[in-house]
Amino acid sequence: LFTKHKSYQKLREMFWLKLKTQETFIADLGEVRSVDPRMELLFHGDIPEEFFPEGKTLIKIRKSLPAQVLSTPRAIRALADAIGDKDMETRAMAVFFLTEAKAEDAAIQAAVARAIGDGELAPSETVRRYFIQVEKIHPAALDIFGQLLEHPDPNTRLQVVFNLSQISLDRKSPIPLTSQAFTGPKIQTALHEVVQRGDKVARAYAIHTLNKLKAYSSSIQVTIAMESKGAGLAGVMAIAEYFSQVNEIDPEAIKVF
Asked: Which end of the chain is more exposed for a tag (fewer CB within 10 A), N or C?
């Protein structure tokens, strides 16, 4: 009876409004280390769209929330929006809770994929964990990966390939390629850069991907041949696979060997 009373609804709306507008109120709730009984009532039943908290607010008060709240459809949408927040911890925690909620639809995967070029360590780690655990990587996420491989900043491109290589390693298979996602005009250049600058795992992944893209130009062949000297096992296998598919090995690459 109490939850149907007008006074209850009024109190509830006042509480929602504070969550929307008062930073000190949110900060106080963020200090709570166990589920707040008020939250049980607050999140019970339907919540008007205009009152539902932002993802960054949910993250700040997460320890005072009932366990099921962060896996509800409304919370998942709010968390996906928080991936673009300027605060590093907020971005990382948003991806973490989306992983915990097993939120794997196309829109969520695309939102998480946009963070794969994040230069910050914490978001990068949570993004990798997310894509390692999803059952199937959606084409919408692959399209984002392809766009990021054409990013104007070479360090971002390197970060993207590094993360894709780590995800592929832990998924026990390379990220699947699609013509839409991985055939942009700058992608071969980006992967060529990674062969020159990346770590061993990233270089092996880049060589594998260049092979799939049939990128057999003279300059790429020479660069890959030069990598054979210091490549690890995965790199050596990728190089061997690459040159086994080349119709005509470039004379300069042969000289390097």
From this structure: N
- Taking the model in full, what pTM does it have? 0.79
Question: Which contiguous run of DSSP H or E holds residue 100?
Answer: helix 88-100
| DSSP 8-state class, residue 119 | -
* Burial letters 41-65, b for 16+ CB under 10 A, else e: ebbeeebeeeebbbbbbbbbbbebb
Q: Residue 52 and residue 71: Cα distance in Å, rounded? A: 14
Q: SS3 breakdown of the chain: % helix, strand, coil, rounded to 5? A: 70, 0, 30
Is residue 235 a contact partner of residue 227, using CB atoms and an 8 Å limit? yes
pLDDT digits (tens, 9 = 90+) for 129-144: 999 999 999 999 999 9
Q: Which residues of 149-177 are buried (b: 16+ CB within 10 A; e: fewer)?
A: bebeeeebbbbbbbbbbbbbbeeeebbeb
